[in-house]
């Protein structure tokens, strides 16, 4: 049986692909929430200082 070139580009039917990935969740990079002094991840997104050592977080400015 011969296959045509465009047959390889057609995605499988939805039933054969499996579940769709969930939307939302954490962003790919959380580096702006990591304390530069002790390495702890901030407890909240709007945090300006580290809850462990009190150092300012990178995105909080001077």
How much beta, percentage-wise?
A: under 5%
Task: Please state the average pLDDT score.
Answer: 76
* Rg on CA atoms, Å: 22 Å
Unreliable sequence segments: none
Order of helices and strands: H
Condensed summary:
The chain has 62 residues and is low in regular secondary structure. Helix content is 6%, strand content 0%. The model has no long low-confidence stretch (mean pLDDT 76).
What do these coordinates show?
This protein is largely without helices or strands. The model has no long low-confidence stretch (mean pLDDT 76). The protein has one helix and no strands. The chain is rod-shaped, with a radius of gyration of 22 Å. Helix content is 6%, strand content 0%. The chain has a domain at 29-62. The termini are far apart.
Topology:
Blueprint: H1 14-17
Question: What characteristics describe this protein?
Answer:
single chain; 62 residues; 6% helix; little secondary structure
């Amino acid at each position: 049986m011969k296959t045509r070139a465009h047959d390889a580009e057609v995605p499988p039917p939805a039933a054969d692909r499996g579940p769709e990935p969930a939307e939302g969740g954490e962003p790919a990079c959380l580096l702006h929430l990591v304390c530069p002094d002790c390495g702890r991840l901030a407890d909240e997104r709007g945090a300006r200082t580290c809850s462990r050592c009190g150092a300012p977080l990178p995105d909080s400015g001077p």
